[in-house]
């Protein structure tokens, strides 16, 4: 009797594992055809100057929507793509589309996320440069977002790659800063333009002293090293105000704008700065 229920339990467990694997395979198969089926798009989220709310750039964020499953989060499919060579085709598609969109904005930069796997690929710099040349855009208008994982596994190679990119004029942002395994000692070796404070810290700011302390330390560190500091995931005016006081140079988050479709981003880009609800038109708040 005990044995039977034991086996039954095992069978149920197996079935749910099978289901998980089946879903995963289905997503992987779908993803490999997503480009051809025209199921991918990019959303753009404004990055604004702390006081003027001038839109200095937009972060490109990939979106995938299928007729069968609806929208699938990049937090799900990017890691799957990273487990195969798919990430390279996907990454190329993302970069090419982000660069093409740039031509419709008066002067802002586009901030593109790169997987550590793309970044560590041989000839990464040449590959990116080729896309940029083909698109006819200035590297100065392209910000490369990488995470700590991308640079701390092989710090020497990463330092070299970043240095080459920076010499070519690209901007470099260290994304999700504070969540990886970076050694602060190493940070100074990398040619960076800015740190992006992970939104988990911004989220905790109003509730926990620890998060607020970490946010202040990152801003302090960034400024001391001469880097810009972008706070991501800013959702409330009180967070924005606290970040201004702490000295963050740029803000990004739902308070200002969610990631929007390309057509919407073009309109925002033309306006050049954001106005928050409740503020007089054309009168951006000052820090
Ligand atoms: P990330 O690069 O750190 O992007 C920030 C994420 O926070 C985005 O989620 C964005 O929509 C979300 N976000 C922005 N403001 C707020 C806010 O105020 N509140 C909240 N709750 N969320 C906010 P998304 O688009 O789902 O992307 C998740 C992650 O997937 C990204 O984190 C990035 O790691 C990855 N990803 C997205 N697009 C790409 C891409 O084109 N290439 C690569 N390699 N990775 C990407
Ligand atoms: Mg990012
Ligand atoms: Mg981030
Ligand atoms: Mg992230």
From TrEMBL:
Lineage top rank: taxon: Bacteria
Record organism: Sphingomonas yabuuchiae
Residue span(s) of domain EAL: 24-273
Lineage: Bacteria, Pseudomonadati, Pseudomonadota, Alphaproteobacteria, Sphingomonadales
Protein name: Diguanylate cyclase (GGDEF)-like protein
């Amino acid at each position: 009797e005990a044995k039977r229920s034991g086996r039954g339990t095992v069978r149920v467990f197996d079935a749910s594992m099978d289901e998980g694997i089946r879903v995963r395979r289905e997503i992987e198969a779908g993803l490999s055809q997503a480009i051809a089926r025209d199921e991918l798009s990019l959303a753009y989220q404004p990055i604004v100057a702390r006081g003027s709310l001038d839109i200095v750039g937009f972060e490109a964020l990939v979106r995938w929507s299928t007729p069968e499953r609806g929208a699938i989060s990049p937090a799900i499919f990017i890691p799957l793509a990273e487990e195969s060579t798919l990430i390279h085709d996907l990454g190329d598609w993302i970069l090419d589309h982000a660069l093409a969109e740039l031509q419709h904005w008066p002067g802002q930069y586009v901030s593109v996320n790169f997987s550590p796997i793309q970044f560590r690929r041989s000839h990464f710099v040449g590959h990116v440069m080729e896309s940029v040349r083909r698109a006819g855009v200035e590297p100065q208008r392209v910000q490369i977002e990488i995470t700590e994982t991308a640079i701390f596994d092989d710090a020497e190679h990463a330092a070299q790659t970043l240095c080459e990119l920076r010499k070519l004029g690209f901007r470099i942002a260290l994304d999700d800063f504070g969540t990886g395994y970076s050694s602060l000692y190493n940070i100074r070796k990398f040619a960076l333009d800015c740190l992006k404070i992970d939104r988990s810290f911004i989220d905790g700011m109003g509730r926990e002293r620890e998060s607020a302390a970490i946010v202040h330390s990152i801003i302090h560190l960034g400024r001391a090293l001469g880097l810009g500091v972008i706070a991501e995931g800013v959702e409330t005016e009180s967070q924005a105000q606290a970040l201004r006081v702490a000295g963050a140079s740029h803000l990004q988050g739902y308070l200002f704008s969610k990631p929007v479709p390309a057509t919407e981003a073009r309109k925002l880009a033309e306006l050049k700065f954001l106005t928050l609800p409740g503020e007089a038109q054309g009168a951006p708040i000052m820090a």
